[in-house]
Amino acid sequence: MKYGQLAMTGVAAAAMLVTGCATTPRVREVELDRAPISSKLEPQDVRRTVEKMAESLLSAPGVRESVGGTRPVLDVEPLKNRTTQHVDMVSITDSLRMQLLRSGMFRFVDKSTSGTDIEFMDAQANLGLTDPKKAIKPGQQSAAQMYLTGALSEIKTQVGRTVDQYYKFSMTLKGLRTGELVWADEQEIRKESVKPRMGF
Amino acid sequence: MKRMNALFGMAVLSAALASLTGCVETAGTTVTTDHTTGSTLVLEDSTRLKDQVQIQKVNYDEVNGLKRVHITLLSAKHRRLRLNYRIAWFDANGMEIDPSTKTYRNLILEGRDSVTVTGVANSPAGVTSKLRVRGLESAD
Q: Superfamily for A39-109+144-194?
């Protein structure tokens, strides 16, 4: 009888340990390039795409020919999102610009912050706080000679419990003076997920 | 007493098995190439991966002033292998250049097939490349 009671207590204690009584979620840091956990576009997909595009652009022979040994002024336009998902395209553009900037092959201008430039120049010229000789006057900024643009598109196919998701990043570099496409490349990502037979 | 010993032994064995099943080997194969001297060092730290993938060829060149490396991997298996690889770059002082920008990429290697992976330095200062290959299960 005593042995039976002891065993029952042991089982109950083990059950309590297994089920747990914690209410806070378990959190841990994981590596940036972790294995996929869904068929959606994930951070590691974006990181790989940015790296691949930067490598492709920097090693393309046409880019060096068109710049003729100089460092052209480049603007990176935000990529267009043609998918049904919300994807922060500005963040992708920023990452790409950062990688290209570090290569030292290009000089950069950023059209998206031109409004702030005007505010600064206006303040320097009109508020009376800045030495007029040192105030930056409009009309001296570098002109973009090339711009980088692109888009993200998707094709989703569902057959039964299987969801097949295809993404394509495509990018082009265009010379503003000649209108020629200097470089173009694309990165394809295909993921498959199978829904469980039972579940909510 | 004998029965108790047997039960204790089984419990220890179960605990050992349970702890072993949770282990995933994250060691892999690394290929370090010095682009100034041309020397290549291959380190195979995983016995399992060593039996699956062999380093067949290492080539390097320069494009637009940036170093580039091509490494050919050969599958020793007849089945499809799913791997991860990353190519990092180091300057002349041995310091890694922008480690956060170089990511692990997917690689599917068909049975007995070879695939060439390519990496371009992200800066003209990059003179040494290091390829790291690991099994996909190591990616967590």
A: ABC-type transport auxiliary lipoprotein component (3.40.50.10610)
